[in-house]
Every structure is written in C-alpha cells, then in structure tokens.
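SEQUENCE-TO-STRUCTURE ENTRY
===========================

Subject: a protein chain together with a token-level encoding of how that chain folds.

Sequence line: the amino acid chain in single-letter code, read from start to end.

Question of interest: how does this chain fold, as expressed in backbone structure tokens?
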Amino acid sequence: DDVKKTVEGVDAAVIVLGTRNDVKPTTMMSEGTKNVLSALKEAGIKPVSGCMSSFLFMDIEKVTPMLRDLTLDHIRMLDALKASDRDWIAVCPPHIAAEPSGNY
C-alpha cells in the first residue's frame, strides 16, 4: 500500500534500490522492483527507469566474488523490467568504491 501511495500522481518512476554495505545474498532489490512495477501498472504509469550495476555487462564469473550475489539480484531486477509491460530503461553506472575527493 505504501508503494501505491508513493506513485499516486506521478508521471514516471525511477527505481534505485540498494543494500548499502550489506553484500549478503538478497532478493530485496528485485522484489522491491516487482512491487514498484505492480503499483505503476495499477496506476497506469508507463515510464520507469531502473538503476542497476554495470556488472550486468560482465560474465558473472568475472564479477568480484564479494559482489556476485548482489549482481544476481540486479539481474533479477533487469529481468523484472524486461518482463513488465512498462516503458523502461536501465541505467547501469559503475561501482564507486572510493570516498569522495571533495575536489570538483
């Protein structure tokens, strides 16, 4: 119900879900994506973008072992977008591990 309330009156949605520093196996991001997609469908909202990892472009065996489980959930997120009837786009930035330099 909270997700349905959140999408009321919007023209589009951006799905950006993460686990912070928790790298344990999860389906939180893909299940959250499915919840948002369901709410968007019910509200008749077509445009949606999903933010996932650029690791999606790599063979899973080449992904840093510590990040493989998260990458698998990002794959499930992308699969949910692909399976939806929404007008979707995936944004896949690289992993940024360093602290901000403050020099911009």
Summary: The chain has three helices and three strands. The two ends are 41 Å apart (CA to CA). The chain has a mean pLDDT of 93. Residues 37 and 84 are 7 Å apart (CA to CA).
